[in-house]
């Protein structure tokens, strides 16, 4: 099949593109040409900026038709509108990489299923924009513009990235804090449920969606099977680092939002909530399998980061210790006020 990957060198696609090549597909990448991935140097690449919509659409017209297009780097509603213009009537299947964050963070019941209504809040721009993009693509599908498949991964990691999401931005400095035995902030009480999966497992779903007529007009949640608390994930990473038992400082998310609104935005909108998602459809139709345990994935990622001296120095993020000090001041005031009220 003649395939186009918009992106192709990121956290997920760099793992599944080799599998598509092994299957004999004729693969073309479209990206800015700013990242080289070992093993993909010889893959045909069209260089450009997909947000330069007029140029992108002209480049796609020049590239001809495709059996399948996989959009891995769509983040803005205008990206979807441009893609519809570019591929209307010119592609056998359009696969959009969305996110499980399109659903409400306060569902009526768990697990979250593909049939649940969209519920991403406008205050969570990443997720809300993905909703808007999906709505554009579903309208295009219903209008007959092209057959559509939507895949919705949850947290996905791989070698070169931290296996542990940092709730406050940055890439891997929290790993440095763990190995140095420094205090670790947990939002809330650290007991919210999270799921994560290695890109190799997630990529399998993308590969098996290509040309799969059973997926047309359908969406699939692509998530890990292990339900883990933030406490547990940090402890697993610390153990694999050979670091001391983590010293946790739990701070209510509402307080984090006041003390560090910019850094804690994803805690407020996402990480404080349980992420329990039904992935049975992906297993049944896409042969998705969760084969890499979180501990094994952590081990692989840490080995790569350490071998490449790629863990960030936590001292480059002074806001973290400043936040700890501010919380200690607030907590002390709360205790003092309580004591004063009790003695009054």
TrEMBL record:
Q: What is the lineage of its organism?
A: Bacteria, Pseudomonadati, Bacteroidota, Cytophagia, Cytophagales
What domain of life does the UniProt record list for this protein's source?
Answer: Bacteria
**Cited InterPro entries:** Epimerase_deHydtase, Lipid_A_modif_metabolic_enz, NAD(P)-bd_dom_sf
Task: List, alphabetically, the SUPFAM superfamilies matched.
Answer: NAD(P)-binding Rossmann-fold domains
Q: Where is the NAD-dependent epimerase/dehydratase domain?
A: 4-222
Which organism's genome codes for this protein?
Spirosoma montaniterrae
In Swiss-Prot or TrEMBL terms, this protein is called: NAD-dependent epimerase/dehydratase domain-containing protein
Gene3D superfamilies, A to Z:
NAD(P)-binding Rossmann-like Domain
User: Which range is the signal sequence, renumbered to this chain?
Assistant: none
């Amino acid at each position: 099949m003649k395939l186009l990957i918009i992106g192709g060198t990121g956290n997920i696609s760099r793992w599944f593109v080799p599998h598509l090549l092994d299957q004999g597909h004729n693969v073309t990448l479209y990206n800015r040409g700013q990242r080289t991935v070992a093993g993909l140097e010889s893959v045909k690449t069209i260089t450009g900026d997909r947000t330069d919509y007029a140029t992108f659409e002209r480049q796609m017209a020049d590239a001809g038709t495709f059996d399948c297009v996989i959009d891995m780097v769509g983040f803005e509603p205008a990206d979807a509108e441009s893609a519809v213009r570019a591929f209307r009537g010119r592609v056998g299947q359009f696969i959009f990489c969305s996110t499980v964050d399109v659903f409400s963070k306060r569902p009526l019941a768990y697990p979250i299923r593909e049939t649940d209504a969209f519920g991403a809040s406008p205050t969570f721009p990443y997720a809300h924009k993905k909703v808007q993009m999906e709505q554009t693509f579903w309208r295009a599908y219903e209008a007959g513009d092209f057959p559509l498949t939507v895949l919705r991964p949850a947290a996905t990691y791989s070698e070169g990235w931290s296996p542990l999401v940092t709730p406050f931005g940055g890439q891997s400095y929290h790993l440095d804090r763990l190995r140095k035995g420094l205090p670790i902030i947990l939002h809330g009480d650290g007991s919210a449920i999270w799921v994560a999966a290695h890109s190799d497992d997630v990529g399998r779903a993308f590969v098996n969606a290509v040309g799969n007529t059973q997926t047309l007009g359908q969406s699939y949640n692509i998530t890990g099977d292990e339900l883990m608390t933030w406490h547990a994930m940090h402890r697993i990473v610390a153990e694999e680092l050979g670091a001391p038992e983590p010293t946790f400082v739990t701070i209510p998310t509402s307080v984090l939002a006041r003390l560090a609104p910019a850094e804690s935005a994803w805690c407020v909108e996402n990480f404080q909530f349980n992420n329990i998602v039904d992935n049975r459809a992906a297993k049944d139709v896409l042969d998705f399998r969760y084969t890499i345990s979180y501990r094994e994935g952590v081990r692989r990622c840490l080995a790569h980061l350490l071998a490449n001296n790629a863990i960030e120095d936590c001292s480059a993020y002074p806001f973290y210790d400043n936040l700890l000090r501010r919380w200690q001041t607030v907590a002390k005031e709360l205790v003092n006020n309580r004591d004063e009220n009790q003695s009054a």
